[in-house]
Structure formats: structure tokens, C-alpha cells
Amino acid sequence: MKMIVVSSFLITWIVFIIHSLADENPRFKRDWGDPLPDLGYPGYNCSPNVMAPSKNMPTNVHSIRPADIKLIMALGDSLTAANGAGATDAISVLLQYRGLAFLMGADKDILLKYNPKLFGQSYGICAADVWECAFLNIAQPGAKAVDMPGQATEIVRRMQDDHPEIDFNNDWKLLSIFIGGNDFCSYCRDPVGYSAANFAYKIQEAIEYIYDHVPRVIVQLVTMLHVEMEKKLDSTDNVTAPICQPLHEYGECKCLYSNWTVESMNQTVQAYQQAEMLLQDYFENKTKADNKTDFTFVIQPFINNAFNPAMNVDGTPDLRMFAPDCFHFSQLGHAGVATWLWKNMLEPVGSKTNAANLSSVAYPLGCPDPTCPFIRTTRNSQNCAQYLTPSELD
Ligand SMILES: *[C@@H]1O[C@H](CO)[C@@H](O)[C@H](O)[C@H]1NC(C)=O
Ligand SMILES: *[C@@H]1O[C@H](CO)[C@@H](O)[C@H](O)[C@H]1NC(C)=O
Ligand SMILES: *[C@@H]1O[C@H](CO)[C@@H](O)[C@H](O)[C@H]1NC(C)=O
Ligand SMILES: *[C@@H]1O[C@H](CO)[C@@H](O)[C@H](O)[C@H]1NC(C)=O
Ligand SMILES: *[C@@H]1O[C@H](CO)[C@@H](O)[C@H](O)[C@H]1NC(C)=O
Ligand SMILES: *[C@@H]1O[C@H](CO)[C@@H](O)[C@H](O)[C@H]1NC(C)=O
């Protein structure tokens, strides 16, 4: 997740190894834009009624149909910038393939199929400040929770000051946040500074900024990834170990190779996740106290209990899901994770999937529930009837 900050000698060596292995090992052979295995779109037909936008622009955040969302945006680190997603070698992991990101990417048309009028999604390869490509994906490689308030400020500035074509007050927006890998990778050196409470507090601060400055927004947080799973990529496969272990140990995540046990890494991730989960209650209470009906905050927990990376049937890691550094997701990995996220968004709070199987995709792709065809929120999950409004086709 962090940019690889190691000596250029090490990078040269790693690239050399990866190039030589890439020729040998078909699992590494993958070019940007290669056709993806069918992830379900050809047969994807939800009832037109649940896919249509609302008849009248909703004013209540608990009545938002997926097609009512006009703007999407994301905060995060290199997993959201999609570092390496289209990479065929370790150097390209330095590139940010935002167009492929599971929270935001549009290169593969996944989100657009759901909602052709969307804006904000990313196209291509670029850094966060290249508007024509990144649009509203503000994620920065190396970012930690402590950077979230700054990213929140920047995204508001970008929408309000730089891009008056955005109807800031009236458009419904979806802001996704996914963060924590770099905090985890620093935790072993400073368990107090990187405590779960500090981690969640910084995310809370960012969300408070959105709460105070952005009208008509659904904020969703994808909980922390079990980063310790990456160790399995190093130890279970003789082919990847010589490449990925040094990359992890000397570059991307030194903590994976500290004196920290895997069990305590597991517990740390769970503590981060629990602190994140509490934010949902916090903002539920806050919106109630303020009688605010155009903001909601939802946790998407599909990754909470995903303890294993994608595996082949023979028990070796399925490298098609990962970039060549065995750390970031590949294009296929992003596409697979995106299916779990969509599933979560359409599941009611309280019964959301919390243990995605990263070896598979969430087939069949979910359709909004006809009895509550909205992006599910804390309140429409309790009682949807009071939020029901007609679609364009009703
Ligand atoms: C990996 O190495 C171990 C120990 O050297 C060996 O037993 C095993 O067969 C190897 N696996 C593969 C897939 O080559
Ligand atoms: C790990 O090593 C550090 C010093 O490098 C030490 O402060 C810490 O107590 C050790 N932790 C464990 C669990 O042994
Ligand atoms: C939310 O409000 C409930 C009921 O007043 C309270 O029990 C709970 O502790 C609050 N949660 C947070 C995170 O503030
Ligand atoms: C909350 O706001 C709604 C309209 O936005 C209003 O009808 C209602 O009376 C308010 N409730 C409280 C408790 O202020
Ligand atoms: C992590 O801990 C949970 C229990 O808290 C356990 O169910 C799970 O198997 C552990 N995962 C790994 C990979 O050890
Ligand atoms: C995860 O999915 C793979 C591929 O579909 C399947 O082989 C495996 O049994 C699944 N694992 C679990 C724990 O369900």
C-alpha cells in the first residue's frame, strides 16, 4: 500500500526477478485491458423498476435508489488509487490505475452499467491531482487514517471551487472510504500512536468534515482488510516467496516480518474494525440529535472476516487476484471485490455479509430489493415503509 521506498538496487533486483519469472510463470502474465473472466454482467437483469431512478428527486437520504446517485467519490490509500491493478511488473505497481479501482473505476464499465449517468468515477492511470482521470478519487498511495481529514477537505474544495459544473447542493453523492493498511504496517513500531482508537478518531474527523460541509451524501466505510493474510502469499507458494517476501519485508509492510505474531496482527485488525463499526452508531446518534435527513453513514463489512487471500483449489494463492507485488489487488481482484461491495450496499444493516470469500465473486450480482429498492441505511433497514417513494417507472 505504501509506495515502495527501498533502495534502487533492491528495485532493480526485484524487477529483474519478476521479469524473469513473468516469462516462466503464466500466472503473472496479464496485460492491462486483457479481457476479464465474465463477472456476471451479460446476464445481469434486475427488474427495470428497481433500477430506475426515483420519480422525483428524493430529499431524504434513506430513499436513495442506486440510480439517484449522481456523484461518486473516494478517500483512501493505494488500494483505492488501485496501485498496480493493471501492472505486469513490480515497477508498474508504482502507477495508480484509478480507472480499475473497486470503489471508483470506470475503465471496465462496471459502475456505469449500474448507473449510466454517474459522474466522478476515474478513468485510466494517474495521480490524484489529474482531474481528467482521477476525477473525485482523491486516494493517495501511502495514506493513513491521519490523512483522511485532509483528503476530505480537498475533495470538498475540488467540488466547490474547482468544478462549478457540479451541482453541489442538489446532486446526491456517494463517498466511499477504505483505509488502514498503512496504519497496520506502522502499528508494530508504535502501538500507542497507531491504536485503534486513534485510527478511528481520524476517520471520524474526516466524516465530520463531510457532515458539516457536504449536502446530500451517503458516506460508506469499507472496513479494514486483514493485511496479515498477505503473509500467506509469501509462505505458501515457492514461486512467489522469493519475490513477494522481500518486497513486503523491506518495503511495503515491514511489520509483517517483525516480532509481531500473526495472531496479534489478527487481533489488531479486529480492534481497528471494531473501532470503525462504532462510528456507525456515533453518526446515527448525531444525525438523530441534529434531525439531519440528507446525510447517512454506513459500514460495509464484507471484508471483516475474510482471513484468506484468494486461493486456488490446490491451496496455492490465486495470483490472478493480485498485482505482481502480491500486495495490491489486480484488475481481477478489484472487480471481484467490487461485487462484494455492491452486495453489501444492497443488504440491510444488521444482516450484511461480513465474510467475503475472496476466492470467488458475489454471484449473482445483487439487485435492489423490490420491497426496499434503496441503498440500505441504518434507518431504511429498520423500517423501510416510511421511506418508500415511486420510481420513474411506477
Ligand atoms: C515447495 O518447496 C517445498 C520444500 O522445499 C517442497 O516440499 C514443495 O514440493 C515445493 N512446492 C512446489 C509447488 O514446488
Ligand atoms: C518486539 O521488539 C521490540 C524491539 O524491537 C520490543 O520493544 C517489543 O517489546 C518486542 N515485542 C514483542 C511482543 O516481543
Ligand atoms: C448512541 O446512542 C445510544 C442511545 O442513546 C447510546 O447507548 C450509545 O452509546 C451511543 N453510541 C455512540 C457511539 O455514541
Ligand atoms: C425534523 O425535521 C423535519 C423536517 O425536516 C420536521 O418535520 C420535524 O418536525 C423535525 N423534528 C424535530 C424533532 O425537530
Ligand atoms: C483470527 O481470529 C479469529 C477469532 O478472533 C479466528 O476465528 C480466525 O481464524 C483468525 N484468523 C486467522 C487467519 O488466524
Ligand atoms: C470460496 O470459493 C471457492 C471458489 O468458488 C470455493 O472453492 C471455496 O470452497 C470457497 N470457500 C469457502 C470457505 O466457502
Automatic annotation (TrEMBL):
SUPFAM superfamilies: SGNH hydrolase (SSF52266). Residues 1-22 form the signal peptide. One of its GO terms (molecular function) is phospholipase activity. One of its GO terms (biological process) is phospholipid metabolic process. Keywords: Signal. PANTHER family: PHOSPHOLIPASE B, PLB1 (PTHR21325), TRIACYLGLYCEROL LIPASE (PTHR21325:SF44). This is Lipase_GDSL domain-containing protein. The lineage of its organism: Eukaryota, Metazoa, Ecdysozoa, Nematoda, Chromadorea.
